[in-house]
């Protein structure tokens, strides 16, 4: 199997301690896959982390402690922070292997309509009242996130091209375990001066699907906080989906079964990866469910 495994930012806990514990557990499952001879590339989200980094550095700047950090720089910091935990945990699980995080830039289109309609939830969850107050004070946008509260949202353009793809391929060929495309990749545009970061957060599910496609993978695994994709999620009649064909997924998407900014981009990314590729499959399950999902006992499998 050639697989990209994407770890959800929201599933990585709220503190460095929680994140390291969760990453360590997942690294054991990933190490098992690698030991079994599969080619595994790892990516991860950064929604809560990039929001916290941005908030903390903005607060410091507002209090005269250094400069404020633009979003692309915050995205790069989040790749280092989460990549460090993954690198350390994988190295501990597989001492004979080399592990490396590639700070990854991903090209987006500056005319992408996403820049006019922010949808990507970042940072912590707030009550409606607090969200309205902060939105007014700071001139930022908040949206309700899948029944969990209100979060700041930022533009989330589509990933078009992975700038460091050749470096990622070279590292894989040398036998290195690669962590890439973290936080969806730092979004950059082409200018007459070369590449330039833009204030946005790419959806890591979409960039993980692009990475898996570019690496000719047969499998994309998205690990999040739930064991399955559900229809009627959160309602009395919610139903766990063990198997989801392209046609079924398209119908459920049209029926608005999957929340925007959370489960919808995951299902769309899996669809884009498997559609018209009968040899491919995608799995959505929980971080702790990876072993069971690989044994076919848990998770939602998206297929043709
Ligand atoms: N139809 C659905 N099925 C399962 N989970 C859903 C659904 N709709 C919304 N969700 C929510 O989406 C969350 C996963 O999205 P998110 O937290 O953004 O992912 P990530 O772990 O990648 O950061 C789940 O934990 C769940 O709360
Ligand atoms: N960048 C990104 O998609 O992050 P999450 O996985 O935290 O949503």
From TrEMBL:
<keyword id="KW-0418">Kinase</keyword>
<feature type="domain" description="Aspartate/glutamate/uridylate kinase">
    <location>
        <begin position="1"/>
        <end position="284"/>
    </location>
</feature>
<protein>
    <recommendedName>
        <fullName>Carbamate kinase</fullName>
    </recommendedName>
</protein>
<dbReference type="GO" id="GO:0005829">
    <property type="term" value="C:cytosol"/>
</dbReference>
<dbReference type="InterPro" id="IPR036393">
    <property type="entry name" value="AceGlu_kinase-like_sf"/>
</dbReference>
<dbReference type="GO" id="GO:0008804">
    <property type="term" value="F:carbamate kinase activity"/>
</dbReference>
<keyword id="KW-0808">Transferase</keyword>
<comment type="pathway">
    <text>Metabolic intermediate metabolism; carbamoyl phosphate degradation; CO(2) and NH(3) from carbamoyl phosphate: step 1/1.</text>
</comment>
<dbReference type="Pfam" id="PF00696">
    <property type="entry name" value="AA_kinase"/>
</dbReference>
<comment type="similarity">
    <text>Belongs to the carbamate kinase family.</text>
</comment>
<dbReference type="InterPro" id="IPR001048">
    <property type="entry name" value="Asp/Glu/Uridylate_kinase"/>
</dbReference>
<keyword id="KW-0056">Arginine metabolism</keyword>
<dbReference type="InterPro" id="IPR003964">
    <property type="entry name" value="Carb_kinase"/>
</dbReference>
<dbReference type="GO" id="GO:0019546">
    <property type="term" value="P:L-arginine deiminase pathway"/>
</dbReference>
């Amino acid at each position: 199997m050639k697989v990209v495994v994407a770890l959800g930012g929201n599933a990585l806990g709220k503190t460095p301690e929680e994140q390291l514990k969760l990453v360590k557990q997942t690294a054991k499952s990933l190490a098992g896959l690698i030991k079994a001879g599969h080619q595994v590339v790892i990516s991860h989200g950064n929604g809560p982390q990039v929001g916290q980094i941005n908030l903390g550095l903005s607060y410091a700047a507002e209090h005269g402690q250094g400069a404020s950090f633009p979003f692309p720089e915050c995205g790069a910091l989040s790749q280092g922070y989460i990549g460090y935990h993954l690198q350390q945990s994988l190295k501990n699980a597989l001492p004979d292997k080399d592990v490396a995080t590639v700070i990854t830039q991903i090209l987006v289109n500056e005319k992408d309509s996403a820049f006019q309609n922010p949808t990507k939830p970042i940072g912590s969850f707030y009550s409606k009242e607090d969200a309205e107050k902060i939105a007014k004070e700071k001139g930022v946008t908040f949206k309700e996130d899948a029944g969990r509260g209100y979060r700041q949202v930022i533009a989330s353009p589509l990933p078009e091209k992975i700038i460091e793809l050749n470096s990622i391929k070279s590292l894989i060929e040398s036998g290195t375990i690669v962590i890439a495309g973290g936080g969806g990749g730092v979004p950059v545009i082409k200018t007459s001066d070369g590449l330039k970061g833009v204030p946005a957060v790419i959806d890591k599910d979409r960039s993980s699907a692009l990475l898996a496609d570019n690496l000719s993978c047969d499998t994309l695994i998205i690990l999040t906080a739930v064991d399955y994709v559900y229809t009627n999620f959160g309602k009395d009649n919610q139903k766990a989906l063990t198997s989801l064909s392209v046609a079924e997924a398209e119908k459920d998407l049209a029926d608005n079964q999957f929340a925007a900014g959370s489960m919808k981009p995951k299902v769309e990314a899996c669809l884009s990866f498997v559609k018209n590729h009968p040899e491919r499959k995608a799995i959505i399950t929980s971080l702790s469910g990876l072993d069971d999902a690989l044994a076919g006992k848990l998770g939602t499998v998206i297929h043709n």
